[in-house]
Write a structure and sequence with these properties.
about 200 residues, alpha/beta, Spore Coat Polysaccharide Biosynthesis Protein SpsA, Chain A, 7-stranded mixed beta sheet, 7 strands
């Protein structure tokens, strides 16, 4: 069965947030009504040492679309997701994200954009482009966003782009650092603040 969408959660020690992340993603996709076709929610766990996997096990019973990849080496979640995702479009998330941002990203893909980016928040991308660019990319969400932007720029194209919501000085500083990790060969450390 062909899936219209793979929502990909990049997880590492997200116990406090994983239930909300899963529910929020499912709500966004299901709220799309007639536009929603079969989808999957792919949780990629990077060797969490908290109860992230236990919570995902409980959620599996309630959410049939949920699949989990576990024991993925740190920094390899994007690669594993690119290899395992089955949807025509992908939405990558590594934190609790405002549903409006996820909806905006999906709407950009439906309107013909190849990718949509909110820095540090979401990456919505066509599966073909995602597989090509992310299938060998070590790092996290911000590294994936940069790789997609670079690939599109090389083709004379641009991703749809929206500024990240202002979450304060600490979040802005963390996003700045995450954006530079790949430049110094440390993209495997690309994770949201607090993980």
């Amino acid at each position: 069965m062909q899936l219209s969408l793979s929502v990909i959660l990049l997880l590492r020690n997200r116990e406090p947030a994983v239930t909300q992340m899963v529910r929020r993603c499912v709500d966004v996709v299901r709220s799309r009504g007639a536009k929603a076709r079969p989808f999957e929610l792919l949780a990629v766990d990077q060797t969490s040492v908290d109860n992230t996997l236990s919570l995902l096990s409980v959620l599996h019973a309630r959410i049939p679309e949920l699949r989990t990849l576990q024991d993925v080496r740190q920094g390899m979640a994007v690669i594993e997701a690119a290899r395992a995702a089955r949807g025509d479009r992908w939405l990558l998330v590594d934190r609790v994200v405002d549903p409006q941002l996820m909806t905006w990203g999906l709407n950009q893909l439906e309107s013909g954009k190849r990718a949509a980016i909110v820095p540090g928040e979401i990456l919505a991308v066509e599966a073909k482009l995602g597989a090509q660019v992310l299938g060998n990319l070590a790092g996290g969400l911000v590294s994936a966003q940069q790789a997609v932007e670079h690939e599109l720029a090389a083709r004379g194209q641009r991703a749809a782009w929206s500024p990240a919501p202002d979450r304060g000085v600490a979040e802005r500083a963390a996003l700045f650092v995450r954006q530079r990790l790949g430049w110094v060969g440390l993209s495997q450390l690309d994770r949201p603040l607090g993980t």
